[in-house]
């Protein structure tokens, strides 16, 4: 009983329980079901720890490393965001296509762009009061149908209740230049560590929520392999995040993090983030 109480007071446990309940209503064949778990987890954790809303670059950098672990290419992109109130057609602009650093703070807004899925993730959209008032969590928006055919490739629309959000992506080179700054450079190893931990949380949530019989429907082959690999592995508490116990060649137990777990031959590799400036 004491162990169960400890779990229920753990923010990570509560986040996993909350998100896991939503997965059963989706289709594992949906290309965005697995990717959507990661920003949901970050959002719930931020609420649990009362983190400040103005953390877009940190969360985006964490997410691109997390998606890489699942074999899903991802980019941080600076954006201009126009928020239109459709009831009176007033428009408020957030972000900019020309972000800049000032006193170790970014003037601008960033999202994660998933180029192979044509979707963006705005995990900190609720830093803007107009969106926060709706209390609906991260924005996961994609280009599809008539919109994709008519709009420029760098523009994504998303409607939430009475708000229409129009994201315009700055060129990737703009974000690369933004990240070529001492503040993000100093945190590269932390971003990767957090990304591995977020990917680990997502994989374990999915392993607990997706029956083995539905796993072949998941279109992301590395993510599916990781979900299956951790399903029956015992976890090991670690100061740096969740770890797993593997059987060593001599029969002893070995502590491993997510990217150290052996996967079947032919499993796609970790996605490369070659666009990031070298640290």
Task: Describe this structure as you would to a colleague.
The chain is α+β, with helices and mostly antiparallel strands. The chain has a domain at about 50-185. About 40% of the residues lie in helices and about 20% in strands. It has helices spanning about 1-10, 10-25, 35-50, 55-70, 130, 145-150, 170-180, 180-185, 190-210, 220-230; strands at about 75-85, 90-95, 100, 105, 110-115, 120, 140, 155-160, 165-170, 235, 245, 255. The strands form 3 sheets. Strands 1, 2, 5, 6, 7, 8 and 9 form a 7-stranded antiparallel β-sheet that branches. A 3-stranded antiparallel β-sheet has the order 10-11-12, with no helix packed on it. The protein has a two-stranded antiparallel sheet with strand order 3-4. Helix 2 packs across helix 9 (about 190-210). The radius of gyration is 19 Å and the shape is globular. It starts with a helix and ends in a 23-residue tail after the last strand. Residues about 1-10 have low confidence and may be disordered.
Produce the secondary structure layout.
Elements: H1 2-8, H2 11-23, H3 33-48, H4 56-69, E1 75-85, E2 90-95, E3 100-102, E4 105-107, E5 109-114, E6 119-122, H5 129-132, E7 139-142, H6 145-150, E8 155-160, E9 163-169, H7 172-179, H8 182-186, H9 188-209, H10 221-230, E10 235-236, E11 243-247, E12 253-256
Antiparallel strand pairs: 1-2, 1-5, 1-9, 3-4, 5-6, 6-7, 8-9, 10-11, 11-12
Helix pairs in contact: 2-3, 2-9, 3-4, 3-9, 4-9, 9-10
